[in-house]
């Protein structure tokens, strides 16, 4: 009886832990979005400076415009933040048998709804505002994350079944 309870508690923790990572990632995104425009821009300019420094090492003398590169860095941050959110969400959903093959759709829904709510949230942040195109960028990142997660899972399952067959 005691062993069964321990197993049950361990199973619950294992099923809840992936959701903890989802909510931690959402919290990070929310906090980054809560930064006033000046603070957010300062953070991205620091990253942009490192990107330009690295690109200049790869291709010395490249004519890089700080404002253009900063825009690309900021939009890529959206894309990759939601790519990771999608992977974390799909991973958290993997244990749910009720959804069947629709887990990817639920994960995408989580990401799109969170992206939309995050853009709405920015309406109340000094110097920032909601942008529909950012929701599309976020959703694109989420979709690629789902595709990568699904492809990697298929490859791993195929390798596992090949090992069993051999």
Q: Keywords for this structure?
A:
single chain; 166 residues; mainly alpha; 5 helices; globular
Plain-language structure description:
The chain starts with a helix and ends with a helix. It has one domain. It has 5 helices and no strands. With 166 residues, the chain is mainly α.
Largest sheet data: none
What series of H and E elements makes up the topology? HHHHH
Structural class designation: mainly alpha
3D shape:
globular
Q: List segments where confidence is low: pLDDT < 50 over at least 5 consecutive residues.
A: none
Terminal Cα span: 38 Å
Radius of gyration: 20 Å
Q: What proportion of the residues is helical, as a percent range?
A: over 70%
Which percent range describes the beta-strand content?
A: under 5%
**Tally of helical runs:** 5
**How many domains make up the coordinates?**
1
DSSP, total strands: 0
The averaged pLDDT comes out at 91
Quick summary:
With 166 residues, this protein is an all-alpha fold. The chain is 82% helix and 0% strand.
Mind sketching the topology for me?
Elements: H1 2-33, H2 37-58, H3 66-93, H4 103-122, H5 132-165
Helix pairs in contact: 1-3, 1-4, 2-3, 3-4, 3-5, 4-5
